[in-house]
Amino acid sequence: MEEFRTLGTGRALTRDGGRPDGRRMRSATSRSRIIRALISLVEAGDLAPTAEMVADEANLSLRTVFRHFEEMDKLYLEIAGAIVSRAEPLIGRPFSSEWPDLLPEMIDRRADYYESVAPFKRALDLYHSRSPALEAASADIARLSRQVFLSRIPPHRMPEPERLEAMVLLVSIDSWLYLRHVQGLDVAAAKAAVVTGLRALLV
Fold it and tell me: Is residue 35 a contact partner of residue 78, using CB atoms and an 8 Å limit?
């Protein structure tokens, strides 16, 4: 996931001889403001903000924003980065019980996390089919979810492959968004549905 956090930071901002390149520094500053504006708008519910909206939010000229919108897939990689970075504080936190008693606590945590990143994931889903880089980022997010879930299951308690894959699907953000935004369940009902499904697969 390192590529999300370092995206765009490797560009040289100095001229030969080490003197600052003002044009490149201004461009990097503008890009940073555009990214912050894009994330802010998406988080507020505008999943596909226009260049005009971003320009207004970033307090930049429309011409400046249009230049950067030409690399929209790179801007949306920052959205993928926001999804990953918000997961990092949760990954190593211990649970108060052991497998499988930890399932309700696990789903409580995932629900809070999924609710916080839902606008980012829905925005990413709008664009990921247009860009191999965004498709790869979406796949990386799914792999991270799977790896974290598998790490909570003791090796000697690992379910058979068919049940395991069904459990991985149940705890995914895609399943959560389906329950919340297609089925129309509230948070409590969606959590109950996931926990019930997981317990049924453990029988």
Answer: yes
Contact 77, 4 (CB under 8 A): yes
For 195, the token pair is 């926990």
Helical (H) or strand (E) element with 81: helix 72-91
Q: How far apart are CA 106 and CA 149, in angstroms?
A: 9
pTM value is 0.80
Q: Of 179, 67, 72, 87, nearest to 140 (Cα)?
A: 87
Q: Is 6 exposed, middle or buried (0-12, 13-18, 19+ CB in 10 A)?
A: exposed
Tokens representing residue 197 in the block = 């499904």
What is the tens place of the pLDDT at every residue in 28-76? 888 889 999 999 999 998 988 888 999 999 999 998 888 887 777 788 8
Instruction: Name residue, tokens 């299951």.
Output: 153
Q: Tell me the C-alpha distance between 106 and 20, whole Å.
A: 48
Collect all residues with Cβ–Cβ distance below 8 Å to 108 and sequence separation of at least 6.
Answer: 191
Q: What is the DSSP letter of 110?
A: H
Q: What's the DSSP call for residue 162?
A: H
Q: What proportions of the chain, in percent to the nearest 5, are helix, strand and coil?
A: 75, 0, 25
